[in-house]
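User: Hey, my collaborator sent me this sequence without any context and asked if I could get a structure. I don't really work with proteins. Can you help?
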Amino acid sequence: MNYFFYTKFRSLFLIFCVLNVILLASCAPAAPSGPRDQCGFIEPTQQDVNKVLSFGGDTFSSTNWVKSYTVEPYKVTLTRHNDADSAVAYIEYLIYTCGYTQADMDAYFSEEGFAIVFDEYESYTETAFCEIESLALYQFDAVDEGANYDVNYWVEQTDDNHMLVMMLVFPKGSPQLVEYSAKLFPKLTGCQ
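Assistant: No problem. I've predicted the 3D structure and written it out in structure-token form, which is a compact way to encode the shape of the chain:
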């Protein structure tokens, strides 16, 4: 009788252990997957996307601001158009899986880099540059379809692997550029 009890108990114990392993395996978080480079995953995470979509809080809550965004390897972009005010807000959240260097920044924010940024504009001129801590601001005058615009272009080093870039464009002299800049980057609203 003892042997019979021991055998049944052992069988039940083994079944219990196997079921526990199966249960634990099904509860474990899925391992990240997707395309990689030599340093990590190149696709933005949901956290990266959420950071971009929530940037600025309710600053752009007016129905005049129409948004669209894309998720690509190494970056998330968000564009907000406000046709009523002839304004644009553009955000890029750049991902450097291996980290970035000053040389990377100098190349990205160079004359050639800004030529790409302002490719759709008739002309542009850098009017000021200033920085504090991990935040820099480039200011431009730009012309598009014969209209003059003021542009604030911020670069924020959010950590060793991410950079947030934001371009805010309003018609020349619009007080809204200052108002929105103060809401978005209160520590660095302008260079004057």
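In plain terms: Residues 107 and 113 are 7 Å apart (CA to CA). You can pass these tokens on to your collaborator as they are.
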